[in-house]
Design brief:
CATH class of the largest domain: Mainly Alpha
CATH architecture of the largest domain: Up-down Bundle
Main location: membrane
Subcellular location: Membrane
Number of strands: 2
Largest sheet: 2 strands, antiparallel
GO biological process, one term: action potential
Structural class: mainly alpha
Pfam families: Ion_trans
Organism: Petromyzon marinus (Sea lamprey)
Distance between the termini: 34 Å
Number of domains: 2
Order of helices and strands: HEEHHHHHHHHH
Strand order of the largest sheet: 1-2
CATH superfamily of the largest domain: Voltage-gated potassium channels. Chain C
Shape: flat
CATH topology of the largest domain: Four Helix Bundle (Hemerythrin (Met), subunit A)
């Protein structure tokens, strides 16, 4: 029961840390600390530096202290330290904890190298979002999702290959189709598809049926290619999806069945008979 309470506390700090990470990017929780001159040719420019509100830093510090204590306790109580450090979730914990201590240690230094390292650490603050993977220790559904993604590697690879081939084919087709259907000297300069690599973005957006609308064909031949691209994308994505869904259903059923298994009670487990000793007597059941 105490382990369950510790898990709830850890879950609370994970959610608080993720919330703090998101709020740090809001203008209401940042203060301008000064400007830095960036020597760019032909004219140097100034960039404004921002500092996070102290309240959020204190909250983040409390979360990091808890994660540090939790990490140290788990590594000290682990019977195999090498296997513990090879665990991906433990590596994520360590990567998410270290930048905070490095940033605190370098914040009081005034040297140019320290400031450059400090600026780099502020950029890599995004690694703190990796703490969201710690939730897999507390939710069965997330663990099932991880097993599903791992078991469906071949299907994802097949999907990427199909999409890559489709993107290359339709980006090439839309480039030439827009020039084929355009009026000479009038519509050739108005097309969005000025090169095949630019058409890659349009092909990805169209095949995934997203359709931002920033690039679209303007000629009848380009519209025909766009229709074929959309239909091909639907069929391409639909092929490996059933296999991934089946894998998820299988792992989810196994996880639910494992949770529903009755817990073993050690008080009713018979002890193994040792050689040279009389066999244990069978207890007489009490009268009804």
């Amino acid at each position: 029961q105490s382990a369950q309470y510790v898990a709830y506390i850890s879950l609370f700090f994970i959610l608080v840390s993720i919330t703090t990470f998101c709020l740090e990017t809001h203008e209401a929780f940042t203060n301008a600390s000064g400007t830095t001159v960036v020597p760019l040719s032909p004219m140097p420019t100034e960039s404004t530096e921002y500092e996070t509100a102290p309240a959020l830093m204190y909250i983040e510090g409390m979360c990091v202290v808890w994660f540090t204590i939790e990490f140290m306790v788990r590594i000290l109580t682990s019977p195999n330290k090498r296997e513990f450090m090879k665990n991906k979730l433990n590596i994520i914990d360590l990567i998410a904890i270290l930048p905070f201590y490095l940033e605190v240690g370098l914040s009081n230094l005034k040297s140019k190298g320290a400031r450059e390292v400090l600026g780099f650490l502020r950029v890599v603050r995004f690694v703190r979002i990796l703490r969201i993977f710690k939730l897999t220790r507390h939710f069965v559904g997330l663990r099932v999702l991880g097993h599903t993604l791992k078991a469906s590697t071949n299907e994802f690879l097949l999907l990427i290959i199909f999409l890559a081939l489709g993107v290359l084919i339709f980006a090439t087709m839309i480039y030439y189709a827009e020039r084929l259907g355009a009026k000479p000297g009038i519509d050739e300069d108005k097309t969005h598809f000025t090169s095949i690599p630019i058409g890659f973005w349009w092909a990805v957006v169209t095949m995934t049926t997203l359709g931002y609308g920033d690039m679209y064909p303007k000629t009848w031949s380009g519209m025909l290619v766009g229709a074929l691209c959309a239909l091909s994308g639907v069929l391409t994505i639909a092929m490996p999806v059933p296999v991934i869904v089946n894998n998820f259903g299988m792992y989810y059923s196994l996880a639910m069945a494992k949770q529903k298994l009755p817990k073993k009670k050690n008080s009713y487990m018979p002890k193994p008979h040792q050689f040279g000793q009389p066999p244990p007597s069978t207890p007489t059941p009490p009268p009804p």
